[in-house]
């Protein structure tokens, strides 16, 4: 078993899509090991997306991610990082496979419903970012 971090982003959390997204993730074989709801501060969003600091979409992304509540979750499954990326689909929902979380719920390349960690190392860092008090989750 391994773990990864998902975040239901403010577009999806604010439009009544939380329950169906968590249900889809559980149906896909993930166990929720930790979950919370918060509105990120600007400093939190800037730090979380620090890797994108030089990208043209960074300022807009930070504004979006601080625009309302989001729901970070630590998810557990075999091969969790790779499997979550499959289940959420491509960054741009227009390019996401049919049936993926983004194809079903996302509005645009920016407002794309959900985050998924892209490596085991980043999953550990990102789970620690939102759940620093948890040595072992679940
Ligand atoms: N993003 C954007 N425009 C882009 C690329 C990304 O607004 O051209 C946003 C989008 O919300 C994406 C996030 O920035 O989910 C992080 O980008 P990344 O390339 O890491 O995509 P992801 O790993 O989320 O698929
Ligand atoms: Mg990414």
Main attributes of the structure:
138 residues, alpha+beta, Alpha-Beta Plaits, four-stranded antiparallel beta sheet, 7 helices, 4 strands, 39% helix, globular, binds uridine-5'-diphosphate, binds magnesium ion
Describe this structure in words.
- It is built from seven helices and four strands; from the N terminus they run E-H-H-E-H-H-E-H-H-E-H.
- 39% of the residues lie in helices and 16% in strands.
- By secondary structure, it is of the alpha+beta class.
- It has one domain (2-39, 71-130): Nucleoside diphosphate kinase-like domain (Alpha-Beta Plaits, 2-Layer Sandwich).
- The protein starts with a strand and ends in an 8-residue tail after the last helix.
- Uridine-5'-diphosphate (UDP) is lined by residues 52, 57, 61, 91, 109-110, 112, 115, 118.
Q: Can you tell me the CATH topology?
A: Alpha-Beta Plaits
Overall mean confidence score, pLDDT = 97
Separate helix tally = 7
What do we call the CATH homologous superfamily?
Nucleoside diphosphate kinase-like domain
Order of strands across the main sheet: 2-3-1-4
pLDDT under 50 segments (min length 5)?
none
What series of H and E elements makes up the topology?
EHHEHHEHHEH
Distance between the termini: 13 Å
Helix content: 25-40%
The share of residues in extended strands comes to 15-25%
What is the CATH C level class, in words? Alpha Beta
Using only CA atoms, what is the Rg? 14 Å
| Shape annotation | globular
């Amino acid at each position: 078993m391994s773990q990864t971090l998902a975040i239901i982003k403010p577009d999806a959390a604010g439009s009544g899509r939380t329950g169906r997204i968590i249900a889809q993730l559980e149906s896909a074989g993930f166990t929720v090991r930790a979950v919370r709801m918060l509105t990120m501060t600007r400093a939190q969003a800037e730090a979380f997306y620090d890797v994108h600091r030089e990208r043209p979409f960074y300022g807009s992304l930070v504004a979006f991610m601080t625009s309302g509540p989001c729901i970070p979750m630590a998810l557990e499954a075999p091969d969790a990082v790779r499997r979550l990326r499959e289940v959420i689909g491509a960054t741009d929902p227009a390019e996401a496979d049919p049936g993926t979380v983004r194809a079903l719920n996302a509005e645009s390349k920016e407002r794309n419903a959900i985050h998924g960690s892209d490596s085991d190392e980043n999953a550990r860092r990102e789970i620690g970012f939102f759940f620093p008090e948890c040595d072992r989750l679940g």
